[in-house]
Known about the structure:
By secondary structure, this protein is of the alpha/beta class. It is built from nine helices and eight strands. It has helices at residues 37-45, 70-83, 97-108, 139-164, 176-188, 191-203, 234-240, 256-259, 261-273, and strands at 3-5, 11-17, 21-26, 48-53, 90-95, 114-120, 217-222, 244-249. Helix 1 crosses helix 9 (261-273). The longest helix is centred in the middle third of the chain and has 26 residues, at 139-164.
Amino acid sequence: MPTISTRDGVNLHVKTWGEGRPVVLLHGWPLSSDTWDPQAVALANLGYKVVAYDRRGFGRSDQPWKGYDYDSLTDDLADVMRACGATEDVTLVGFSMGGGEVARYMSRHGGKGVVGAALVASVVPRMLLSEDNPDGVDASTFDQMTSGILSDRAAFMRQFLADFFGQGLLVSNVSEETMDWAWNIAMQAGLNPTLECAKSFATTDFTADLAHFKVPTLIIHGTQDRTVPIDATGRAAAKAIPQSQFLEYDSAPHGLFATHSDELTNDLVALLSGSSTRKDLPHLA
């Protein structure tokens, strides 16, 4: 099933790999479902049905003018789940922006069919700095992002991805080839979807959604995340979501799906198997 059509006629590129209990993987901004490939292969080989799709406006999916608010994006998730037969015993895994769709699905769709969830370097519960969210990101930062994207999107994305993967003069967490790969994926996205989704993850408050998490939830965040600050998101979500387990990846940047790929895979398998820790499982690298 290479594409599915949403309720409003948008074609979304979908990958379904393997057979078994469904796991739905939601990617981050400004990338695509391909960033989940190492985890998707491992989970499919372990007997899970993995569903990963390109968010509208990104990767190989259609680029409609509208529909980039979280209610619409979450309805896309529900459409994908229905079309792929992922309606029972589902685990939802959201990276970065994708964590917002997981949270909104739990409230807007009542968590229908979901038995487990994971928020990986997620924007939940909120990103924007405010008096009651002092660890958030100042609005001026997002204004600068918009300006940079409009001025020279290619150059902006190169610098953004350097921060995303924690690259520096003395630190190289990923290869130049990985940087090039991620940049190429980012540049596949439409300009308007890139801007509108940035606005959505920057300004949406998911605090009210957290009470709707009624399933075991794994929260993973890197302590050196320069893109999504851990105090305003991962640590805050862990305090608010019942039945949650919080794992801090020491010194990990935002793009930990690449920098800590094996560790992430093992922790997701532990969640799916009902184990409290990956140490109970064989190493999957």
